[in-house]
Sequence to fold (204 residues):
Amino acid sequence: MSRFTRSREAKEFLVAKIVAEANQEGVSLSEVERKMLYFSETDWTLADVETVSEAFTRDYDHDVYEKKITSLIHNARKRARKEDRQEFDAWSDAIRVLSKEDHYLTVMIDEDDTSIDWLGLSAFGFLIIGGLAVPILLSTLLKSVLPRFGVRATRESLGFVLWLITAAVAVIGTLWYHFLGWQRGSDFIARVKGRLLRVFHRSI
Fold:
């Protein structure tokens, strides 16, 4: 269950974490820069956001600002992932809530490569590809092995087995996405990979 029920709560949490990260790193954030984190043209924002936006457009470089905020987001999330699992999950919940609406902050979050664990996604992709390759390998195996035991593998039986495995992969992938999400799913893969590597190193 998400920790946040409204976009305002989610945004205030994220802004507080970004400002805290800036303070920790010694990165200067002016009042205008801080208030721009709340900017939205259609959803909840600060009452004086139009005045803030005008000042920002006049006095600041958008690209420089976005790179600075993206860096703060990346560092804060990376630290939370290593040191505080509950805080990292809260980041994910807040981002999920904001992503349903139109907020300037989500633009900079999308640019942060911590938002997508490419290693985890790659592993997930290999999992799906492997799942699709298994039916082909199994079909070949059944055709060559079953006759040795006096069992005749018919096209219908092989087709059913292939369909069953493919359906299982599709169901697992769907459940993975809806219940774990990309981030938690990739974290799970990372933990499994770490354990396998430890076992491998102990065996050599």
